Amino acid sequence: MGDYFERVVDVEATDGEAAELAARALDWLVAEGVVTRERDREGMYSPHADEGYAAGPHWTRAVQGDPGWGPGPLAVITGRHHYAGGQGEDEPAYAVCPECAVRTTVIGYPESFVADEEVWAPFRAAVEAWERTGTGDAACPACGTASPVTRWEWCDSYALGTLCFEFWGWPPLADAFVEDLTARLGHRTARHMGKF
Length: 196
Hints:
The protein is of the alpha+beta class and 196 residues long. It has 3 helices and 11 strands; from the N terminus they run βαβββββαββββαβ. It has helices at 15-31, 117-133, 175-185; strands spanning 4-10, 35-40, 52-55, 74-84, 93-96, 103-107, 137-139, 146-148, 153-154, 158-168, 189-195. Strands 4-10-1-11 form a 4-stranded antiparallel beta sheet. Strands 6-5-9 form a 3-stranded antiparallel beta sheet, covered by helices on one side. The protein is elongated and about 50 Å long. It starts with a strand and ends with a strand.
């Protein structure tokens, strides 16, 4: 059981900005006909939301080409969360130190599907602290400098953010649509897909 998703995560929005940015982006998506304000939960398996917004009459404006099927709901999620790509990863999961730029591999996909617990433990603790309190530092295994976990550069399949748009069962999003959404948010975003 499960479904495919594609996410766009605002990795720079603060706790105080997230709700307002979410409302503004949703207004734009509704005005464009990409989604409606009707609530929907069919085919949605988000760990952070129970329901989303139903696709609108012009949902194809958001996707690449003519997909041949209709999408599921869009979940708009606020709050401090970490996001992982789910099943199907084929590139190593890593974090890049903001001080020395050394890349630390956490999971060696596709050879291994389990995190190296010794390497991942300090990152997990920092992420959990950030989700609870808004701050959490991780020390770099290479240079030893402790930096806020939100300053680390993460691989494409992992992101930390206070605002996320989860498109459940949608065909692949068009690059131009994601660029437009990102521009409207005014922040750097992370984009990844997977299956739950």
